[in-house]
Amino acid sequence: MQIKIDRDRCMGSGSCQFHAPHSFDLDAECKAVVIDAFGDPLQAIRDAAEGCPTHAIQLDPPTG
Amino acid sequence: MSEANIIEIGANPADRARNRAIGAGVINDPYPTYDQLRETGPVHEGTINRAFGLDGMMDAFVWPDRRQFACYDWKTVDTVLRDAKTFSSEWYQHTLGVTIGRSMIQMGGTEHRRYRSLVQPSFTRKEMERWCERWVQSMVDRILDDLIARGEPVDLYAELCAKVPVFTIASSFGVAEDDVPHFHELAVIQAGAVGTPADRKRAADEIADYLKDVIERRRKKPEDDLIGLLCNVEIENPDDGSRHRLSDDEILAFARLMLPAGSGTTYRALGCLLLALFETDQIDRVRANRSLLEPAIEESMRWEQPLTSAGRLVTRDCELAGVKLPEGSVIHASIAAANHDPGRWPDPHRFDLDRERKPHASFGLGPHLCIGMHLARMELRTAMNAILDRLPNLRLDPDAPKPWVTGLLFRMPTALPVVFDA
Questions:
Q1: Which of B23-37, B232-246, B285-299 has the lowest mean pLDDT?
Q2: Which of A42, B7, B241, B311 is least surrounded by CB atoms within 10 angstroms?
């Protein structure tokens, strides 16, 4: 599975980092980055995508 | 007057009056009504207050001269809170913004993004480790030292839940510890729901006078607290790319927004979490297995959200779940009804620690997602770990009246009378 982050949409809330802390981090510009696409259970990564306040995270394929 | 109407909950007279005004002691179990509204809607004309027979209350929170609607399921609440163009936060300009001034809660689009970006880096999960060490842990420890030294039955809601969040946010602004209780009262008054517009204005002015001093000091000598940070950052003018420091008024509006947002919400969340664990007899289970603490925090926030709705201004004629919403009307998104939508959570009214986790709506949804959510979670975690570590055999006081969760706009426990082993 691939995780894509749209940096323009990302507002740096860190919501993804809460849902999937081993998969996402924030960089120096306070934008989400993927540190390990398999760092958390698939459901946690889906929660991160669903919970993103600006829908900046896309999963490919969408169902994992 | 029935007993239900004279219930007193709160840290000070304004807090007690406000809690009555938002339905504490009047509305205890709103969920059957939410279910009915969801099933027969999910969109209805009229405010949420009116749906509960409390019309006329909390006018400061509804902008009463507009046509009002409310929505009551996950899907419509998700739509309203995420589509910030159609459902604008400009609503706050006519409610909270009247007293606190223009802050990011009422902004939209790129303006909101620019202002929020200034402070977002101060509210990351990583930054919260520093907040914990600097402000939260030591205060929680001091409160517990005192309770343990007294060694008697205590109302944990008044003695601990009421104090930790307001001390944290006020300390991060450079408010002196002795001034925090008075500050708390001012924060409640200025946020509306009790008192007259003149009372709210006076409270907002008094907060401004105090904080202007802090701002002046931070402008002279930088500090790495929130006011210090706001004095230092520069914001870009999108028209010509020039940058300027924030004005005193901009900093004040931000601070006035953060005070009630940071003090009342986590106060109630911590109270509801503890009550949920007492009522379901699971406090020892979490004490023994701390990996359950985070699920407990999230489930209790879903089960009893500290703030149950958010309003938006409808910016164009549109349709929501088959109901026509005219431009200029107000829509209230019921976070509580969304969090209890059986289409998303089976048996939604039950506090279930073992429930499958899903994002809830208690911090909002969309671009105005609570900026303090990592702070709130850190405060809840820190307070709970300290309580579980230091108060053995903690339980509800069997000799005190049994508490319950109450309120309409806000949800809170009536009290938390507890005993523990010395």
A1: B232-246
A2: B241
pTM of the model: 0.94
Q: Is B327 exposed, middle or buried (0-12, 13-18, 19+ CB in 10 A)?
A: exposed
**Closest approach of B125 to chain A, Cα-based (Å):** 7
Q: Using a CB–CB cutoff of 8 Å, tell me whether B124 touches chain A.
A: yes
DSSP H/E element including B325 = strand B323-325
Pick the CATH number of A2-60 from 3.10.580.10, 3.30.70.20, 1.50.10.20, 3.40.50.300: 3.30.70.20
Helix/strand/coil (H/E/C) assignment for every residue in B162-229: CCHHHHHHHHHCCCCHHHHHHHHHHHHHHCCCCCCHHHHHHHHHHHHHHHHHHHHHHHHCCCCCHHHH
Q: Which two tokens stand for residue B83?
A: 């589509």
Distance (Å, rounded) from C-alpha A9 to C-alpha B229? Answer: 25
Domain that holds residue B67: 3-419
Q: Determine the Cα–Cα distance for residues B245 and A46; give it in Å rounded to an integer.
A: 39
The answer to whether B369 contacts A19, with C-beta atoms less than 8 Å apart, is no
B366 in reach of chain A (CB within 8 A)? yes
Candidate from A37-41, B19-23, B158-162, B202-206 with smallest mean pLDDT: B19-23
CA dist B274 → B178, B286, B385 (Å)? 27, 11, 12
**Cα-flanking dihedrals φ and ψ of residue B161, to 5°?**
-60, -40
Q: What average pLDDT does the segment B8-26 reach? A: 82
**Residue A40 with chain B: CB contacts under 8 Å:** none
- As for the ipTM of the complex, it is 0.95
Which positions in chain A touch B357 (Cβ < 8 Å)?
A: 43, 47
Q: B291 to chain A, minimum CA–CA distance in Å?
A: 15
